[in-house]
Write a structure and sequence with these properties.
Elements (H helix, E strand, L loop, with lengths): L4 H16 L15 H13 L3 H14 L4 H5 L13 H20 L12 H7 L1 H10 L4 H4 L3 H11 L2 H15 L5 H10 L12 H13 L14
Helix pairs in contact: 1-3, 2-6, 3-5, 7-10, 10-12
Length: about 230
């Protein structure tokens, strides 16, 4: 039978984070240089959960040293490595190379400097609520569901817990603080799930700033309606 979630997290939770960073990317790590996918994992994790890099090294190395057989994979007792574009015979050697890069990063204190996200995975893990907002309210179906962009923003604000709205405001301000050009912001919006253009005449950055201001404004709370009987 499949392992329980707590057992999976203890044995493979951080391994899964590392390998998720490779989805849609090339596993082209070399002995001299980690791949763009692994650099994205290191950059994000060092600046958010630095302790997890050591956990990742341990889990990746242990999995590489003790690869599962087909039967145990079929029974769900082991983590199945996703397709990273490598022949099965090369997976073990590649995992050990990844573990070596993680170990070297820890031992040498090689913390990647902060930067704008560079991969799809990095955009999503750095701005999770913004991805939820854009992917859920500004997909290609948005024009059929709302009369305009403002209506979609209002619907999000009215249907989402205030703490999540506040989190989104923080993520919007963090994104704007990167001071990217509008071409880069357009790429970021697409990576985060937005499938429609910002409303005219706004540029991507101007629209993001407008949304942040709108959602940061305090909501009016007039209390319960008055009893008509007095």
């Amino acid at each position: 039978m499949s392992m329980k979630p707590i057992e999976f997290d203890r044995r493979y939770g951080e391994l899964d984070q590392v390998l998720s960073a490779y989805v849609g990317r090339s596993a082209d790590d070399t002995a001299e240089e980690p791949s763009e996918a692994l650099q994205a994992y290191l950059r994000h994790t060092w600046h958010t959960r630095p302790w997890a890099v050591g956990v990742a090294e341990q889990q990746v190395r242990e999995y590489a040293r003790n690869p599962p057989g087909r039967l145990r994979l079929r029974l769900g007792e082991f983590y199945p490595v996703p397709d990273v574009g490598l022949p099965e015979a090369e997976i073990q050697e590649w995992l050990l190379l990844v573990a070596d890069h993680l170990k070297r990063s820890i031992e040498e204190g090689a913390v990647p400097p902060p930067s704008a996200p560079r991969t799809h995975w990095e955009w999503r893990v750095r701005f999770p609520e913004l991805a939820q907002f854009l992917g859920g309210w500004f997909s290609q179906d948005m024009p059929d569901e709302f009369p305009d962009h403002d209506a979609a923003v209002r619907d999000y604000a009215e249907s989402t817990h205030p703490q999540l709205v506040s989190r989104l405001v923080g993520e919007l301000n963090e994104l704007l603080a990167l001071h990217l050009d509008d071409a880069a912001y357009a790429v970021g919006l697409a990576e985060l799930g937005m499938e429609v253009d910002p409303p005219a005449p706004f540029t991507p950055s101007a629209w993001l700033a407008l949304v942040a201001d709108h959602l940061a404004a305090p909501r009016a709370d007039y209390g319960p309606p008055a009893d008509p009987r007095g």
